[in-house]
Amino acid sequence: MTAIEVDHLFVFCSPLAPEADALVESGFAEGSPNTHAGQGTACRRFFFGNGMLEFLYVTDLDVIRHGTAEPTGLGDRWLGQDSGASPFGICFRPVAGDNEAAPFASWTYGPKYLADGTPSYEISQRCRIIEEPFAFFTPKFSRPDAYPADRAQPLTHHNGAREISAVYLESPYGVLPDVQSSRIPGNLKLYRNGRHRMQIEFDCARQGQILNLPTLPVTLLW
Fold it and tell me: Which fold would CATH assign to domain 4-221?
């Protein structure tokens, strides 16, 4: 069975994602934003050689709660941000090969915003347990530094950050309990702790720099 790796991470944030401004001010180059047609969400994005960080927010609560995205539980997760819901999501992809099975029991989600020919997502069957991080899987996505020219994103950051070397994910509840332990990437560290928190490390934090986002439980180190 092919190993998996982290494709991208998301964190729920305020409308229009003003929290992402702190990254720009700290020398991270922002990629193109994205609007998720038919899902009622949008995001600001930052790309690195091996993955992406997404600041996700809701644009249409009625669509996300009552449209085709309703089974994902994302609407309830958004509304539950002040009452214990995890703000985090993590998407996995195969290290090599196509059409690998998801590392958890899943169901297929094909949102409207995916372009023709883009594979659907496999969503964890535990997605409605909003106290846990949201887990999903894509069978064919690649590293951003391997994107074709028509999908290329800025990967050169003014602060010198290049690749995600580790992700530390904390939760007071379950932390991806359904992901097969033998397939959890080595650079993904999961902790059951008294809070929701994500720490993202770039290039083994060789520069000794740190950014704590004041209104989100996210820390960046590079």
Answer: 2,3-Dihydroxybiphenyl 1,2-Dioxygenase; domain 1 (3.10.180)
